[in-house]
Structures are given as structure tokens and as C-alpha cells.
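Now for a sample.
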Amino acid sequence: MSDDSRHLRTFYNYYDMSVHWNELTQIDLRALGEQKSVFHEALQLVNIPGLYLGTPTTNYLNAGLKWNRPFMGLMSKPLSLGHQTIHTVLRLPTFELVILKDEKTILGEHDLRDKRYDIVLQWFQGVFERIGFNAENFSQPTSEIFMEKYFSQGAVSIHNFIAALEIVKLFNNAVLALRTLRIQLTGSSAITCWPTSFKLSTVVPLNISQNGEIRSGFEAGFCLGNQYIPEPYFFVNSLPSSGNDELTLCDMMGGGQGCCSDDVFGTKLLYTKLINQTDQYSMVNHFFYHNIRFLQENMKVLSHSNDKIRWN
């Protein structure tokens, strides 16, 4: 049996337990970061069908994705074809793109290892033409800037199964913890993965303007790391946020790290701290609950407001 086959069997043995918290283990952060970068690059492909075939009013390139547990991957917004609902999924364990009908029936699968962007577009075109879409436009690039930013090397080639498994566990665990949090909170948004920042989060708006902008609130979630924090972490931030992770994540308090500024208050729980805990799930749940309460009482952005979180 090849190493790939053994690791795939590990994935599917793990999947049988994926409705529960799966213990995180020490993984080389460099390998984890390299695999995260590969997944992040490939993640930009998930919304490509929407750019070509979706409604012009929808921003598909930056559209939020959701975690699909049965396929252990991140799934696009739906495309409608008659009575069919079509999604694209980046399946992390096997590093494949999968086209699904009604979130469960596989219409096509494509291994991304060492595949160029134009080859992926040709595959998309073939699958969508076969199921009834007019997919002629797939032969034309949507944006040269998009191609240069995410596919500058021409092909994606790195795939570390051990690091990929840890990332799958992290996403499954994060969804589990955020679902637990949403049960306790009134008005929290759906759990969404944002492809540009590669973070998974839910938002609790406290004060919304007439044009729909969040004047105050919280975002709780998980991120695989960024240029300032080179490892995965769970986080709670106030909203609105400057979007500058270097500002929002300074040293602050026990159980996490964070900072306050004139308009931002936030905290984080690092992967390297979490993996040494005997009860990781309880620690993450306590981190979310304790820090949302702490921020609501102390952050400057709400110091002038009577906005309150509704806990169930």
C-alpha cells in the first residue's frame, strides 16, 4: 500500500468520528504553513464557476464558503440550473475539486496536484456543459490580476497529507465550537469561510445602521494564520474592525492575546498553546464565552453604547 493510500485510509477512519472534537497534535508549523498556502491558493478556484455562470450582481470571487463535513471541504454558494442546485467543493484530504448536485451527488472530480489554471478551467467547462450550462466563457480568463495573484507559479504541487489532516481536524473542530457558541447567542450569523483571508467565523451584530453596516458587534472564529501570526488560532474581535491583524492581536490577557485601540478590541488563542491542553474543546468553548463577555464589558467601541448581547 502506498503512503498516499495509507494516509487516505487515515482520513476516512477519522471521518467516522468527525461529528466530535478530534484531538489536535503537534505538527511542524512550517509544514502546516506550506500546506495552508497551497489550500489558500486552490480555494480561489471554488468560486470560479460563479464568476462565469452566476448572477452579475453577486460578488462570487469574495463570496463566503461553508464547511461541508461529508466531503471534508469548503463549498461554494449555490448555482441554480432548473430544479438542480450545483456547488463546487475543495475537498482537502484528496486535494480535489468536486462538483456536487444538491450537496451530495458527485457530478465531477478533478485532482489539483500539478494542474495548471487553464487545465482546471477546461475541466470546469466540460462538466458544466455536460449538465446543461452554457459554459463557453470558461475559455476566457476572468481577470489577469486574479491569475497573477493566485497562480503565479502556473501549477499547485505541494500536498502534505499529515499537515492536510491536521487542517481538516482544525476546520471540523472550529465548526463544532462555533456551532456550540451560536446556540448560546441570539442573532449570530451563519458560520462562513472567507476565501481571501481564509478564516472561518460567525458575526454577532449589536448595532446595525439603516444601510446595513455593522456599527458595533463581535466576530468569533478561527484562522489558519497570516503574515503576522504564522500558525492557526481562534479569535474574538470587536466590530467594526480595522482589518489590520498586526494592530488587533497584541498582548492582552490570560487565556489569549490581543489588544485594544480606538476602534478595535480583540484576543486570540494560539494553536501551539491549545495542543498542550488535556481538554481542548472545553478550552476553546471557554475562550469564546469568556472573551465575548469580557469584550462586551470593556471594549472602547461600545463604551458609549447600551448595546447588549443576548445569551440564550
